[in-house]
Amino acid sequence: MKVFGILCFFYSCLSIIIICQADDTITKTQFLADGETIVSSNGTFELGFFSPGNSRKRYVGMWYKEMSTTVVWVANRETPLADTSGVLKVIDSGILVLVNGSSSIIWSTNASISAQNPVAQLLESGNLVVKDVNGSNSEQILWQSFDYPGDTLLAGMKLGKNWLTGKEWNLSSWRSTDDPAPGDYTYSLDIHGYPQFFLYKGSTKVFCSGPWNGVRFGGPHLRPNSIYKYGVVFEKDEIYYRYDLLDSSVVSRFILAPNGIGQRWTWVNKTIGWVLYLTAPTDNCDDYGLCGPYGTCNVDKSPVCDCLSKFVPKNPRDWNMTDWSGGCVRRTELDCRKGDGFVKYNGLKAPDAANSWVDKSMTLEQCREACLKNCSCMAYSNLDIRNSGSGCLFWFGDLVNFRDFGENGFDIYIRMSSSDLGSTVHRVAHHRKTRVVIAVSLAIFSGSLLLGLALIYYILQKKKRNPSQEREDLPIAGHSVHSSEQRCDSKSHNEDLELPLFDFATIAHSTDNFSQNNKLGEGGFGSVYKGMLEEGQEIAVKRLSEHSRQGLDEFKNEVICIAKLQHRNLVKLLGCCIEGEEKMLIYEYMPNKSLDYFIFDETRRTLLDWPKGFHIINGIARGLLYLHQDSRLRIIHRDLKASNILLDIDMNPKISDFGMARSFGGNETQANTKRVVGTYGYMSPEYAIDGLFSVKSDVFSFGVLVLEIVSGKRNRGFYHLDHDHNLLGHAWKLYKDGRSMELMDESLGDSCHLSEVLRSIHVGLLCVQQGLEDRPSMASVVLMLGGEGALAEPKQPGFFTERSSKVRTGASLSTGATNSANQLTITRLDGR
User: Fold this and answer.
1) Which of 540, 570, 588 is at the close of a domain?
2) Phi, psi of 782 (to 5 degrees)
3) What is the separation, in whole angstroms, between the first and last Cα of the chain?
4) Where is average pLDDT lowest: 19-23, 363-367, 669-673?
5) What is the spatial distance between Cα 201 and Cα 195, in angstroms, rounded to a whole number?
6) 558 pLDDT exceeds 90?
7) Cα gap 754→750, rounded to integer Å
8) Is residue 236 classed exposed, middle or buried when 0-12, 13-18 and 19+ CB atoms within 10 A define those classes?
9) Is residue 183 domain-shared with residue 273, that is, in the same domain?
10) Are residues 348 and 372 located together in one domain of the fold?
11) CATH of the domain at 505
């Protein structure tokens, strides 16, 4: 019996050894059960079972060991386990299988080679491999997770295609944060023409990077940097894109989010959080084919679409109504038999190269000759821009997906009729004498014509000029702003914004002579009216009142600022009207009015369920991130509030009213003003008291908005029987007591996702902290709202006691002075 007991004890210990895992491997005699993990030898990655978001389903996945909420790969994306009975193991044939409690295989690898000693190992790179280890220490890879990417691209992974096996490596988004099954979006390296990235929603192209040029893709989205190196690799059997980290201690990943946005994130140990490094698409101009064939997009112009030089809109009426899908056509049709030539276009994003052909040996001059001989060839450029350029890339068919990138752009030579060739083009001529005669004649004729047109234009302008010279004071057509404060983008005041000018009669007719029936709202600037242009386009007209408290400076500032901003979450400025004493801004019409129209009304806020509310919160955050980080200059709104968030027909939020906005250069972070403007309840403490504003001022306002959306209550005017705090103080008190869910409005109860609501409240409290250095950036806010990583503990909010006489009366709004609250420009704007 004693011997039998010793044997039983030994067998039980052996069983424990079999079940427990080596650090990074699973062998035939081992298995991985739910609750156990294996870790890569460098301690970076961990493999085990998990449940994403609010889901209770179980998946086998891989994540960063120190960042367990950041999942980078999922095995059974489409076949989750219903409980914790799952087991991951290697079977004799060298296949890695996931079995449920009924011993049914619900997921497996597809290795087809039998193995003598198969082992599954989690490598330091985050690659899970199944390999056959034989006695001679040689190893054969049977299967690897890097061949089956999910939504995340890690260093060393490939995106592309193997010609020999037909294997393709693409990214596919999660269906949602709770469901890792393949979603609507895929991101792939297209190799039908010359390699370029496409983002698809289903089978529809929504973004195209442009072709690889030896340094980067068609635009400046990817640039050489100190974090990672990247490139397209051309091998005999495969073509692929990959990146490698320059420092092994750096943690960086590229992810395709459920909303279809590609994001590069880098971990920062100092802040213990992910930092957004780049996004693609970045703005409206990245929408595939937005401006149609031969149309080019520029986010700094309004409207954003324009035809390339020597091209005109194909459908002028549709084009003027902002339907640019038809694109542009040449002013003069091509005639290959008579001799075409090429015009050089600079500073562009390279167009879609799906219909292209390459020759790696030609010079640029040989490219021109070859393209001229083929009447189907529409354009050419250097294939590789390194070392002064080499090789040829030829385009066939219409050219689509241009945008203006200025100095960071691409040079391309586009085929043009001989009659449209200028001094910057190469042209074909059969006789040099004929070419000289034609050139001289055209020059004389053109010079005479231009001189005559200039004279006519001068006479007409002199007759039309208004004695008050109102137009010369506005930032239109090259005139500058004169103000005691630096406002939006002062460096570009002398630039021509190309903002359409509407005449007063047109606007008056569209609004039924500013009828009260068409009035949408009123604020310190004046009134807002709904209008309908003759083409059928609905507009919102912001009419500056003669007695406006904002005045001409704010009007000018808004024209300059918003005319240069283009983002899906910013309201679009269509033009302006300046005639005599009349000054008006014309915007796109927002049928669902403003955010405060819904959240502060007992009846209407029931129409705003939690998914819509959370969508609005995320949209505002992305709009602010664009203003703070992705626009040409860092823009600080300074008057972010519920009434300045407009809602389109699909309840997408649009930030509006840039009359108070300020801009910074790339290295500037904060400034001080003697004139504090904004709205009480949304202003940060350092701004209201000391006049100090920065991007963190907008972060504070955003935090107030988040708490208002969740609660359905205004920050100012909030009242509670148990204390004298405003909404911020009430939210802070509930959070400290572990009762944050009590902040949520009852109307959201049936539709809310508990984790999203709690995370939103937590993020809102982080944004409204008293110290500006404690508040997160909007890049971090977007990350936190997306459910990435643990959240820091918030500190006490600023201005959390509303009924303090100091705050209510506006005392000490600037250092060493006693000011009245009347000094604040408190704007009030209903939906438009």
Assistant:
1) 588
2) -60, -40
3) 89
4) 19-23
5) 19
6) no
7) 11
8) exposed
9) yes
10) yes
11) 3.30.200.20
| 564 within some domain | yes
User: Are the C-beta atoms of residues 420 and 446 closer than 8 Å to each other?
Assistant: no
E strands present in 503-581? 519-523, 526-532, 538-544, 573-579
Please, what's the b/e burial string for 670-697 (b: 16 or more CB within 10 A of its CB; e: otherwise)? eeebeebbbbbbbbbbbbbbebbbbbbb
Q: Which of the listed residues 553, 588, 623 is the one where a domain comes to its end? A: 588
Question: What is the pLDDT averaged over residues 82-104?
Answer: 91
Residue 9 lies inside a defined structural domain of this protein:
no
Total number of residues shown for the chain: 832
DSSP 560-589: HHHHT---TTBPPEEEEEEETTEEEEEEE-
Q: Are residues 156 and 99 in the same domain?
A: no
pLDDT in tens, 762-777: 999 999 999 999 999 9
The pLDDT value recorded for residue 499 is: 66
Contact 710, 613 (CB under 8 A): yes
Strand order in the sheet with 59-64: 37-39, 45-50, 59-64, 67-74
Question: Does a structural domain hold residue 369?
Answer: yes
One-letter identity of residue 580 = G
Which segments of 353-489 does DSSP mark as H helices, in order?
364-373, 432-464
Predicted structure pTM score: 0.54
3-state DSSP assignment of residue 306: strand
Residue type, 41: S
- Same domain, yes or no: 641 and 498: no
Q: Say yes or no: 422 and 451 in one domain.
A: no
Q: Check residue 647 and give its pLDDT.
A: 94
pLDDT for residue 1: 43
Could you list the residue range(s) of the whole structural domain that residue 42 is in?
Answer: 22-148
Kindly state whether residue 471 falls inside one of the protein's structural domains.
Answer: no
At 2, the amino acid letter reads K
- Beta 425-427 vs 341-348: how paired, if at all? antiparallel
Tokens 């500190």 — which residue? 795
Both 621 and 749 in one domain: the answer is yes
Q: Give me the mean pLDDT over the 335-364 stretch.
A: 90
Task: Provide the domain count of the chain.
Answer: 6
The CATH number given to whatever domain includes residue 239 is 2.90.10
Q: What is the mean pLDDT of the chain?
A: 81
- Does the pLDDT of residue 88 top 50, yes or no? yes
Question: CA–CA separation, 503 vs 74, rounded Å?
Answer: 59
> For this structure, is 352 an active site residue?
no
Catalytic pick from 300, 639, 657, 698? 639
Q: In angstroms, how far apart are the furthest CA atoms of the chain? A: 119
Tokens of 435: 């070419």
CA 228, CA 247: separation in Å to the nearest integer?
A: 8
Place of tokens 């602010």: 624
Q: Per the structure block, which two tokens stand in for 40?
A: 């890569």
